[in-house]
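Our preliminary data section would be incomplete without showing what the modeling component actually yields. Below, a chain of 298 amino acids is followed by its predicted structure, encoded as tokens that our downstream tools consume directly.
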Amino acid sequence: MTTVSPHSARLTFRALEPVHGMIYFTPYGPDEYRELGITDPRMMYFASRSAAFGPVPDAVTIATFFNFNPAAVRAVIPAAWEISAPADILRARLRAVDRSLRQAWGDDITGPEVREAADLARQAAERACARPHGRPLFAAHATLPWPDEPHLVLWHAQTLLREYRGDGHVALLMTEGLDGTEALITHSATGEISPEVLRASRSWSEAEWAAGVRRLRVRGWLADDDLVLSEYGAERRGALETRTDELAVHPYEAIGEAGCARLRALAAPLAIRVMEADLGFPALLSARYRQAIQAQVR
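Predicted structure:
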């Protein structure tokens, strides 16, 4: 039995996601990483997100990032650790978060809404920390110390909740027998995001993508012609997303349905201000975030 529905857990996660997600687009990230000598954008991404593991070999990042082309990882990991220590990269990342949220929220960064949201999100994240089993990327981030300031607490809490949910999703992709390319293809086949965006952002070639499409057609996941899910594929993808929601409920039980509703109400204006703060959000992603926020306030 659970005190929070999977649907509510999903909406609560989505409502706060822009607060975390901005770190992948804000210009303050590259500013901080360049100060360490890291200038390659791919290295910035892979090193900053996997630095919580320490100076791991490329295989660890490949395994936990799942849907990225392994060649893209090998091109920058472990070379990144020869340029800067993981602990320094993590500090640079948090400085970029601080600068970004201060730009987005201004004087309200110390206000009661941020403090309350941080407290609720931290309660959920700390409950997740008691159950790290089978969630390696989450577990690595769960070992990091909590920041002191509420706006950074809020960001760190959402980071933990994101990686917790993501690790569960990867586990389910594995049980479906999907590899990284195939997972992306089935996502794009839902119509939520273009295949070109997913293929390019995860560094897969056109030939590798096409090979994945052929494999999925043979297995019955895709229709015969267009890049759309077959009836079977839609059923399997839908079940996968539903189960992802179910596996992500545990943290939010710390605050219950009322706490989730309150956190969503607090998160909506904060997330919108992050997206409107000239922090580099792509238009398509911003539209998807806004749609999720609108859904949670209905």
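DSSP finds 16 helices and no strands in the chain. The chain has a mean pLDDT of 95. Preliminary results of this kind motivate Aim 1 of the renewal.
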